[in-house]
Specification:
3 helices, 137 residues
């Protein structure tokens, strides 16, 4: 059941990325007359806020599941083979990217692009490590 939810989330994210890129490009081209889409447009900010909120909700549910598992003394689900591990790492990498994207938007509002450039290598691995800890312990 959990894998179905993750697959539905990823499909929604892929469709949202395409729609956001299309809308972002249309807004940018319409206002400037040509060129590539801006990374700091309101549409991209809204996109990262929505996906980041969804990813943080997944972290919240994972934390609750981890607390319940620790309380009952249960073990995490066993992963078999390379494909299970690769799929898990790819999905967790995307979720960590979306969650850290929300943090990057908030940091860029306060400290600008330089603050994001100085802290991204702490934030993204931190989110990825936290998700791995919650699901594998």
């Amino acid at each position: 059941m959990r894998l179905k939810n993750i697959n539905a989330f990823l499909l929604t994210c892929c469709l949202s990325v395409q729609a956001s890129a299309t809308v972002n490009n249309a807004v940018y081209v319409g206002s400037r007359g040509g060129g590539s889409p801006s990374a700091n447009s309101p549409v991209s900010t809204l996109f990262f806020l929505v996906l980041g909120t969804g990813a943080l909700y997944f972290y919240y549910k994972s934390f609750l599941g981890w607390m319940k598992r620790k309380k009952n003394g249960e073990e995490p689900e066993r992963l078999y083979g390379f494909t299970d591990w690769a799929t898990m790492l790819a999905i967790f990498g995307l979720l960590a990217l979306f969650a850290s994207g929300l943090v990057f938007v908030i940091l860029s509002l306060f400290g600008g692009r330089e603050l994001v450039q100085q802290t991204w290598y702490f934030i993204y691995p931190g989110f990825l490590g936290l998700l791995l800890l919650l699901h594998r312990t």
